[in-house]
Design brief:
Chain B: InterPro entries: FecR, Ferrdict_sens_TM. Chain B: Keywords: Membrane, Transmembrane, Transmembrane helix. The complex is a heterodimer of chains A (188) and B (287). Chain A is mainly alpha-helical. Chain A is built from ten helices and no strands. The longest helix of chain A has 28 residues. With 287 residues, chain B is of the alpha+beta class. Chain B starts with 5 loop residues before the first helix and ends in a 9-residue tail after the last strand. The radius of gyration of chain B is 26 Å and the shape is elongated. In chain B, a hairpin with a 4-residue loop joins β19 and β20. Chain B has two domains: 158 residues, Jelly Rolls (Sandwich), CATH 2.60.120.1440; 70 residues, Phage tail protein beta-alpha-beta fold (3-Layer(bab) Sandwich), CATH 3.55.50. Classes of the chains: A mainly alpha (188), B alpha+beta (287). Chains A and B meet through α2, α3, α7, α8 and α10 of A and α1 and α2 of B.
């Protein structure tokens, strides 16, 4: 029942263009998890993230006959997901227009038990999430989504200078958080 | 207290959001529901497959074919045209529907199973899907396949299926009859289905134009022509002679002419699809 795993993404898109429903299923199975993660990094809501990716695949099906020939399908799907996620945030006025406030103390928000109970890799999630929203988006787009400063600036309608400032801010905050974490580890 | 570098932050950041793993199969099921209406819209379209080229010229597009979408959620195709019609079902299964035949399926098609009804004749190329059997029922008999190609003729509770690729099963109560490639399954009302060999796939002739008879009684030849092209032939009752011949044409009248000649008779048209063999029947011709 599984669609033939030997097809490349590009072949699947070609078959999809011809109306093959199993090609859509194969692309879905291959990319759904990763695309949901991409969307979730933007919207920070797992249900909404799945909705966004669902809509992307519905659109792929509806536009199948007019899909352009794709040489790089995975990046195309990722880019579409990012754009849809940003549109989602924009529609809900969730793209910040100012810098936002940094939380005063990290420890006060997290609490020692919170830090002890999670692994370092998982804790970075919390640290990034506590960045002011614009700072978080810029940092995520740059470091997790590998977008260039120019792309980020265009997506968020800000200057590249602002992107750089936000990156500096994000690093300062995250470094402070990691230092604090190291201190806890020494104390424990 | 160590000072963490940008590199370490970058490395840790790549794990951001990796803790979310949605259920792919649930998501896929939801996608299918989302595109339900669009995807399950069956299509009548031109066929591109080379082995169907022979009928491509006769295949009609949606707007010229008799096509109804009923309010009950059932989709019915009626081929009211004079040519074969190609229909693509929601799962990609392709059916070539003979003129005068109709095919229908419900809104739940390709849910747990793929169930269709047919009255008349069609050639089916069923997309493989072991989880969703393709089913056609008539009377107590149900034809069940997972993916194969066959010619199916249904008239009332009579069903005749000649398999060209793979195999099918005819279920009858708790009994089942398997029919493999180049075999024919026959089901009549109230009887256990039977299987006969069909090495020449003569039941596909309306579509392929290929007929082979090896020492076949003339009555059987005429029945085959009738089932393929709906032609009725008036044959002198005492007339019986065997036919050995190969035909490569879809012109029933031309084939009938040859069949009549092999019996020392001539064939004349008496109506739109009715013919009569006239002249002295030479029962020894063809022996």
């Amino acid at each position: 029942m599984q669609a033939t795993p030997t097809y490349t993404d590009e072949e699947l898109v070609n078959r999809l263009r011809g109306g093959a429903a199993d090609a859509l299923d194969a692309l879905f199975r291959r990319h759904y998890v990763e695309l949901c993660r991409v969307a979730n990094r933007f919207v920070r809501d797992e249900n909404q993230a799945e909705d966004i990716v669902q809509e992307l695949f519905v659109a792929l099906w509806e536009k199948r006959s007019t899909l352009p020939p794709l040489t790089a399908t995975a990046p195309y799907l990722r880019r579409s997901t990012r754009n849809r996620s940003l549109n989602y945030l924009r529609d809900r006025k969730r793209i910040p227009v100012d810098d936002g406030e940094l939380p005063e103390t990290l420890a006060a928000e997290t609490g020692p038990t919170g830090i002890e109970n999670f692994e370092l890799g998982a804790r970075i999630n919390g640290a990034i999430d506590r960045l002011p929203e614009r700072c978080r988006l810029v940092f995520t787009m740059s470091k997790v989504e590998d977008m260039s400063h120019r792309e980020i600036a265009q997506s968020l309608n800000i200057s590249t200078k602002t992107v750089e400032n936000q990156m500096t801010r994000a690093y300062r905050h995250l470094r402070a958080w990691l230092a604090l974490l190291a201190l806890f580890q020494v104390l424990i | 207290m160590s000072l963490r570098s940008h590199q370490e932050i970058d490395r840790l950041a790549t794990g951001y959001g990796q803790d979310f793993t949605p259920d792919v199969e649930k998501g896929l099921a939801r996608l299918h529901r989302n595109i339900d209406g669009e995807r399950r819209q069956a299509k009548v379209r031109r066929l591109r497959l080379p082995h169907w080229l022979s009928i491509a010229a006769g295949v009609l597009l949606l707007f010229t074919a008799g096509f109804f979408l009923l309010s009950s959620g059932n989709t019915t195709f009626r081929n009211d045209t004079l040519e074969a019609m190609a229909v693509e079902l929601p799962d990609g299964t392709e059916v070539i529907l003979q003129r005068g035949s109709s095919l229908s399926f419900g809104g739940a098609y390709a849910g747990a199973e793929r169930r269709v009804e047919i009255e008349g004749q069609g050639y089916f190329n069923v997309v493989k899907d072991a989880d969703k059997p393709f089913l056609v029922s008539t009377g107590k008999t149900t034809l069940r396949v997972t993916g194969t190609a066959f010619n199916l003729r249904v008239e009332g509770e009579e069903l005749e299926v000649e398999v060209s690729e793979g195999s099918i099963v005819l279920d009858y109560g708790d009994r089942e009859v398997s029919v493999a490639a180049k075999q024919c399954g026959i089901s009549k009302s109230g009887e256990l289905p039977t299987m006969v060999e069909a090495p020449n796939l003569n039941r596909h002739a309306w579509r392929t134009g290929h007929l082979v008879f090896e020492n076949a009684p003339v009555a059987q030849v005429l029945a085959t022509l009738h089932n393929n092209w709906d032609v009725e032939v008036d044959l002198p009752t005492t007339c019986d002679y065997p036919i050995s011949a190969t035909f490569n044409k879809k012109d029933a009248a031309a084939i009938l002419e040859t069949v009549a000649k092999l019996g020392g008779m001539t064939c004349t048209a008496t109506g739109k699809n009715t013919f009569a063999f006239v002249g002295g029947c030479d029962t020894n011709v063809g022996e």
